[in-house]
Amino acid sequence: MHAAAAESLLPYLHPSARVLDIGSGSGYLTHVLANLVGPEGRVIGIDHIQGLVELATANMRNSDSGRGMLASGQVTFVKGDGRQGWRAGGPYDAIHVGAAAAEEHQALVEQLRAPGRLFVPVGTGSQWIWVVDKSVDGVVTREKRFGVRYVPLTDAPGE
């Protein structure tokens, strides 16, 4: 699924792009996205579990390029409710959601730059990848792409 997400977002992953990776988990896709936007781009990985934020940061530190991305601010990992996005880093050229939302979260669409793209699995029983595009003039279109099976995008567990 990481490859499908990256391929879908690729037209928006230009040098200097701002990208939000919701449910960044291990940080793998965050690192891939950072490589695609280059050193002038910015990628924020957000997760609601502090242990995963720490894991992603530690994984990035396992390579010279990852350490450089963290030190330069090209990549940042934060703890937060990804369903609300991360307004402080936006607007975003691309947003990837790595867990299934029960419904589309308007806050994410609002944080898209115009033009911008959101790649999000949606559904509680049947789940589908939805690609939400915001055109240069702010018009939002939605396309249901293909069926998937993701873990749910949930509230943070008690910590």
Task: Describe the overall structure.
By secondary structure, the chain is an alpha/beta fold. The chain contains five helices and seven strands, in the order H-E-H-E-H-H-E-E-H-E-E-E. The protein has a seven-stranded mixed sheet. The longest helix has 11 residues, at 50-60. The mean pLDDT is 93.
**Any idea what the radius of gyration is?**
14 Å
Low-confidence stretches: none
By secondary-structure content and strand pairing, the structural class works out as alpha/beta
**How does the overall form come out from the CA principal axes?**
globular
Largest sheet: 7 strands, mixed
Instruction: Please provide the count of β strands.
Output: 7
Order of helices and strands: HEHEHHEEHEEE
Number of helices: 5
Read across the widest sheet, the strand sequence of neighbours is 3-2-1-4-5-6-7
Q: Which range does the strand content fall in? A: 25-35%
Kindly report how far apart the N and C termini lie. 29 Å
Helicity range? 25-40%
- Mean pLDDT, rounded to whole units? 93
